[in-house]
Amino acid sequence: MEHTLIKDANIINEGKIFLSDVLIGNQRIEKIAKNIPHQPGWAIINAGGNYLIPGMIDAHVHFREPGMTSKGTIYSESRAAIAGGVTSFMDMPNTSPNTTTTELLEQKYGLASQSSFANYSFYMGVNSQNLEDVLTIDTENVCGLTDDGLYFDNKDSMLCNQPEYLEKLFSRANTLIALHCEDEKIITKNEKAYLSRYGERIRPEQHALIRSEEACVIATERVIELARKTKSRLHLLHISTGKEAELLEASLNLQYKKITGEACVHHLYFSAKDYALKGNAIKWNPSIKTEADRIGLLNCLKSNKLDSIATDHAPHLFSEKSEAYFLCKSGAPSVQHALPALFELSRRQEISLEEIVRKTSHAPAELFNVIDRGYIREGYYADLVLIDPDGKFETPEQLYYKTNWSPFAGENLRAKIKMTMVNGKIAFNSGHFTGVQNGLRLKFKKER
Fold first, then answer.
1. Cβ-count burial of 86 within 10 angstroms (0-12 exposed, 13-18 middle, 19+ buried)?
2. Do 348 and 425 belong to one domain?
3. How many other β-carbons are positioned within 10 Å of the β-carbon of residue 17?
4. How many structural domains compose the chain?
5. Residues 21 and 124 in one domain
6. Are residues 81 and 17 in the same domain?
7. Residues 62 and 46 both lie in one domain
8. Average pLDDT per 10 consecutive residues for the chain, totaling 448 residues
């Protein structure tokens, strides 16, 4: 059996930072201890006191395959992911065709089994036509149900704006349901007002006023009320306002917390003041809002009202981001930058390193009941990331996104991903891919 011994790592895990060695064999962590004696034939990695963390589990990405492969593929975006320390991802169903049948879902799993460098799972998409089908998914092999990026029907409506149908889904589903919450009536009203006043000259910063705080809060309140009524397992995606985050209950016991919420890296790193420099590059839905909202999200992460951090990695061609407001696509690539950006927030003392690991690795594993991942524990899969906190992030020429741009490119992100290990094999090392394609399908505990 091949073994790898990581020496002298500053491990960040389960609320502690401590110096230790880690022994890895047969895909898993065999031993965590100081001064593990080296045996002949073992590979040695000298961590040199750099931080060793469990790989990020990004529970919200759009890798675009099938159907939009000019923007990204499972191959290209999973490479970018491991270059950024993301060792597992959960991909949304708004591909072409939308992933709204079990057959299409399994086709995506087949693609990933051939091309993914990171561990993977895929959401089943929910619309007005497939209620009976989504209720039959295997909860041990599929991360959950969602409408993110989809429309309920041909009227361009999100599920959060269909309370009667949503109550049917909540009352019958036995798995996690992840929802995008914005009130479309409010957004449409705002769009008409700004279009009437500014025409095609709507400015990037006005996106935060069109996709407003009010639109988010009202929709989130409505969905939470329904979830509580039906005792459903609800996960709120990309919460963008402090007021929404304050609606959640503070709890560290995620095994029993029925209503949970994620924050996304762009909402934690950027605020409305950044539209002046970044423009449409930071146009996301929900919108990036005020500095007070950014701080409010960070505070709710620290108080455990917000439970996890994801990316909402959503690559578009840069030409699409250069269009006028109503033609400009929302979303941007970010998986390669997520952990360095969060480490920069820690350097500013806005969030601790222990909290970063808790919200990017431990919490997603608990929220989705992922089996044997998300922690540095003996017996768990060796999904590990070695980070130099005082390194320098790669230059824009070394971006690995297929679209070759990101709003985080050019930011002074000093933490550097030195090595990424997936299932006990080094996949990315010192700025280079090793060629090891070792991603596995994520498995989940049945009761969720």
1. buried
2. no
3. 14
4. 2
5. no
6. no
7. no
8. 94 98 97 95 96 98 97 98 98 96 96 98 94 91 94 73 95 95 96 94 97 98 97 97 98 93 98 97 98 98 98 97 94 98 98 98 97 98 97 69 96 95 97 95 85
